[in-house]
Design goal:
The chain is of the alpha/beta class. The protein contains three helices and six strands, in the order ββαββαβαβ. The protein has a single domain (about 5-25, about 30-94), classed as STAS domain (Transcription Regulator spoIIAA). Strand 5, helix 3 (about 75-85) and strand 6 form a beta-alpha-beta unit. Belongs to the anti-sigma-factor antagonist family.
Length: about 90
């Protein structure tokens, strides 16, 4: 099973998140369903970014795919995952 590695932008908010959603939806329509999201550069995520992650996660699950998150290096970003309890839903690798 090949996982497609995607880099999350530094500021994963409204504009960047919408652009990222389009990119991933396009990849899903082409048959991709296994993704690894690299958060090494991400220093900010807002509710739009979180919503994009949840919608991608749901689509992947519907298609028997997978979504993994790794390299969440910024403590503020990790704190958002914990506060929203998405760290319990999404697979976040340390």
């Amino acid at each position: 099973m090949k996982k497609l590695n995607l880099l999350i932008p530094e500021n994963f908010a409204v504009d960047e998140a919408a652009e990222f959603r389009e990119k991933v939806n396009d990849l899903i329509s082409k048959g991709e369903k296994h993704f690894k999201l690299d958060f090494k550069n991400c220093s900010f995520i807002d509710s739009t970014g979180l919503g994009v992650l949840v919608s991608i996660y749901k689509k992947c699950k519907e298609l028997n795919g997978s979504l993994n998150i790794y390299a969440v290096n910024n403590p503020k970003v990790m704190k958002i995952f914990r506060l929203t309890r998405l760290d319990k839903v999404l697979e976040i690798e340390s």
